[in-house]
Specification:
A: alpha/beta, 4 helices, about 25% helix, about 15% strand, B: extended
Chain lengths: ~170, ~120
Amino acid sequence: MDQLIAYRSFVSYIDRSREYYGAQGYQKPYAWPRYDKVPFTPLAKPLAEARIGLVTTAGLPKPADPMKAMLYRRELYANPSAPPPSALYTDDLFWDKQATHTKDVDSFLPLNRLAEYAVQGRVGSASPRFYGVPTDYSQARTIHLYGPQILHWCCEDHVDAVVLFAL
Amino acid sequence: MSLVSRHLEENGLATVVVGCARDIVEECGVARFVFTDFPLGNPCGMPGDPAMQSAILGIALDLLARAWMPRTTVQTPYLWPGDEWRAAFMRVDDSNREALARAGEERRKFQAGLKKS
């Protein structure tokens, strides 16, 4: 035993964000999705034969042109995996900007690491594209728009399994 | 991200979510979840540590192949240096309560102005 504790050590982001926005005067807390039933699909083929796709909540980099940058809007996207992007846009996302940074893309979207596993034969291949999903206040948009579009792109790219990285 | 994972699973694609917000993912309910007890931002390992990133991705790939039922969570063995981030993130206490209330008020005024214009 390393220590005795009277509370859970894991940060509860549901509790923390409710208290934080409550302190800002937002009386109605965000309602997070919770399901009793959870769908499950077994992997249909060995990993060494499977094509793997990656999904991120990070956005494509903002344009360098200031005017275009002002008009930048987060959107759903599919982008070539090679060459991997050297940066992705994360400033607008809910992550701990005091404790860490997102300058190393592989720390939140491991395109290089997956390519290495494909070369080594641990996976069959990496999808030629990776996929970006905006973090949206609207769960309906995520369920009815983003999920189906990501599924469509994965089918186009003959992806067998998907690893999703929530920033 | 959990909702997208669920949609893919419902339509025959195996998935694994990799993240650091344990309560949000587990309350939603996903097929497979790789949890690392890090501050939000680096779900696949520390910046500049490709060995850790490979290991975490490898755990996710193994879980894809080996999980036999939904809600399977695996916690990686990695520890963030120091625990200060746990209390500091979105902290609310007497030192910032007034400032937060003021910031919320200003934001609502700004948003109301946007709606009018």
